[in-house]
Design a protein that fits this description.
This protein is mainly beta. About 0% of the residues lie in helices and about 50% in strands. The protein has 2 domains: about 15-130, Jelly Rolls, CATH 2.60.120.10; about 130-230, Jelly Rolls (Sandwich).
Amino acid sequence: MRGTQQSNHLLHTPDAFMRTRFPGMKDACAIVHISPAFGAAFTQYTVELESGGEIGIALGQRFLYVTDGSVLVHTEGKEHHLAPRGYVLFPQGTSHRISSEEKSRAIVIEKACIPNSLAGVAVVIVGSEDNILSTSLGGDPGLQMKCLLPANPALDFAVNTMTYHPGAALKRVQIQEMEHGLAVLEGGGIYRLSEAWYRVTAGDFVWAGPWCPQWFGAIGKVPAKHLVFKNYSRNPMAGIQR
């Protein structure tokens, strides 16, 4: 088993995945990667749906990113069809229904909202990564980022995709107060977490807690692509998270 559980980070690999069902799920199961039970301020899981399967209710904000198949979203009197790389954000308390049109997989992030009295009200966001402009990180053309959510002060987290071309790497080790949830979508590479080094590949999940040193470099002949969550846009004193 390649996976490991440490005090300030986690590597969750497919050889250790366990499947469960949440209340309200129909013809679906979840692989929970991280949750408040381990000290995180959010929950991230992969949902696997049979044709006609449903996810059930959300207990907080919910972000969903389709990796395989197709998903039908019902919300605010509208229907949205999400193909691979399609995504949706539901603000906390938003009524919605998610069902699969065929056998499908999606990454789901759920988090209790930390309100901001200076911001407006968050709204449902439906989009596709294919329609987002890619920008280079730190001026490095080998490291491309797509911001899936707008820089809206009503939102207290960000979700981005990061694509590392073969041989590309972060310029330095990062240490910050924001925790990260990272799903490896494609390719692979070497991840530093705290003082340890790990080989990661498509299908793996990484959690880095606040202040955990982290670094990544891509290896292999194909780009490495990650879906990355981080808490964002809140004073560290707002809403004690742990």
